[in-house]
């Protein structure tokens, strides 16, 4: 409702009035005659305007009511604890974890929203480590299943039957116990190496519209419902270079939100190693390890590369652990790196190529520091 009485004060500058300002801060000069304004200014008075009568008059300044305190706009505060938790995700990322902040935030968000997550990337890139860090960061129950090592998917995921006293008894699996645990985080490690039967069993478990496990192929078989808040995380090495890796079924892939974990750049690898071993290993050695790994990764990625695998972050950490325990770079390389590269092929072998990369860093390219009697070849690095 519009106010009937409007009060104003005369503002001046250099002895001349400028305008009449209301208690709300509005310019109301146009409501008063010039002569009335000049007299009010001269007498130190204020002005009052009646909107019903359309008349203004002079009044004593002490009759002007105190200015109204403007109402502050209420700040919109996000009170949704889930959104706040997602926003705060980078602050709860473990220091040793080298997954980027945005992918960690995506991992946290997917988990708290009950999404299925598939982490893909090269072996040793930190997929499993990131997945294992999630339940600790979110304070949730954790269950781990290595599906790549499972020979009997049905026994692992459903359970076993046995006979006792002429009765058929059923022992439910640890997986069933896991899916019946509210808010559990369930890691399905090496899903790309699992038997296709495991994929078929998991189809209904992972489907948002079903979320149950059928105990038998019979259509009338009992069902085990997945508890509320359960999140599934799968890891997969995607690519033909990984032994026993299968091409994942497209229908299974569609049940996941995919987070790609790539190999680290030389700079990020060095930063990671410095964070973990900076107080135990000389920085020059850490730089050498990161650089040697980087060369193998570039060669592995090259279309005409000589390597079928590369030095992963898992392997560089292993090397640095050896360095911290007093091994030299040559010794750590011989026992921690070379066994992972194929020695067949003579002068064209993967192992000899990696040796030459290491020798470059040791400044001993002209002699075989490993003393294994292999034929010398021209430096191809």
Task: Report on this structure.
Helices cover 34% and strands 18% of the residues. By secondary structure, the protein is of the alpha/beta class. The protein folds into three domains: 59 residues, no CATH class; 180 residues, P-loop containing nucleotide triphosphate hydrolases (Rossmann fold), CATH 3.40.50; 97 residues. Strands 6-9-12-5-13 form a five-stranded parallel sheet. The protein has a four-stranded antiparallel sheet with strand order 2-1-3-4, with helices on one face. Helix 3 crosses helix 4, helix 10 runs antiparallel to helix 11 and helix 11 packs across helix 12. It is elongated.
Summarize the structure.
This protein is 34% helix and 18% strand. With 381 residues, it is α/β, with parallel strands linked by helices. The strands form four sheets. The chain has a five-stranded parallel beta sheet.
């Amino acid at each position: 409702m519009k106010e009937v009485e409007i009060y104003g004060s005369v503002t001046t500058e250099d002895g001349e009035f400028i305008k009449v300002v209301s208690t709300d801060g509005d310019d109301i000069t146009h409501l008063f005659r010039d002569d009335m304004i000049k007299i009010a200014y001269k007498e130190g008075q204020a002005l009052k305007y009646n909107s019903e009568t359309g008349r203004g008059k002079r009044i004593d300044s002490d009759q002007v009511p105190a200015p109204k305190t403007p109402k502050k706009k209420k700040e919109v505060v996000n009170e949704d604890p889930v959104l706040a938790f997602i926003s705060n995700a980078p602050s709860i990322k473990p220091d040793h974890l080298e997954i980027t902040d945005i992918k960690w935030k995506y991992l946290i968000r997917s988990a708290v929203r009950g999404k299925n997550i598939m982490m893909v990337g090269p072996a040793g890139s930190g997929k499993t480590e990131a997945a294992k860090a999630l339940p600790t960061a979110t304070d949730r129950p954790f269950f781990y299943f290595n599906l790549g090592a499972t020979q009997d998917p049905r026994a692992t995921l459903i359970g076993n039957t046995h006979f006792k006293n002429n009765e058929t008894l059923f022992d439910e699996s640890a997986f069933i116990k896991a899916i019946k645990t509210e808010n559990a985080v369930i890691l399905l490690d090496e899903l790309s190496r699992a038997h296709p039967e495991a994929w078929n069993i998991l189809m209904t478990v992972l489907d948002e519209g079903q979320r149950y496990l059928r105990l038998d192929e019979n259509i009338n078989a009992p069902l085990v419902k997945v508890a509320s808040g359960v999140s599934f995380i799968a890891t997969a090495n995607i690519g033909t270079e990984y032994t026993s890796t299968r091409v994942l079924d497209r229908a299974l892939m569609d049940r996941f939100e995919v987070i790609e974990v790539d190999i680290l750049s030389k700079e990020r690898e060095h930063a990671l190693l410095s964070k973990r071993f900076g107080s135990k290993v000389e920085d020059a050695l850490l730089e050498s390890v990161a650089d040697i790994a980087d060369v193998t990764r570039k060669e592995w990625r090259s279309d005409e590369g000589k390597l079928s695998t590369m030095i992963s972050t898992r392997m560089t950490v292993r090397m640095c652990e050896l360095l911290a325990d007093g091994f030299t770079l040559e010794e750590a390389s011989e026992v921690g790196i070379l066994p992972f590269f194929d020695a067949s092929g003579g002068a064209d072998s993967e192992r000899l190529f990696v040796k030459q990369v290491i020798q470059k860093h040791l400044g001993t390219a002209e002699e075989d520091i490993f003393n294994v009697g292999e034929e010398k070849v021209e430096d191809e690095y």
